[in-house]
Amino acid sequence: MSLSNLLDSRFIKFVLVGVLNTIFGYSVYAALLFIKFPYLIALLVATIAGVVFNYFSFGRIAFNGHKGWAVFLKFIIAYALIYTINALLLKLLIDYLIINNYLAQIMCIPVNVFLSWVFMSLWVYKEN
Q: In whole angstroms, how large is the CA radius of gyration of the chain?
């Protein structure tokens, strides 16, 4: 298998697993909004729940294994950064552009996907 096929395969797995992870994370966020959690708290809880779910799904399926505590720590740091950027963007969309809480998070998804791919492929699961 050539390097480009390997990268394409890893990227395709990342996208497919990412769809599952996004559905999980957004469902937690939307459910918490529905029961009247503030949107940033709902995002934080959804992110925390998603970290464990996503670590196992990305690690096993998209990046071929977990590779220990150091990788898990990098994973948590990556998601803390993604959460921070997502929260800032969400606040901008909801508080300043007056976009619905549910739609605003959907609008954040492409940014989150891009950041996740960059962090996971170039730092968290980077192969030397």
A: 15
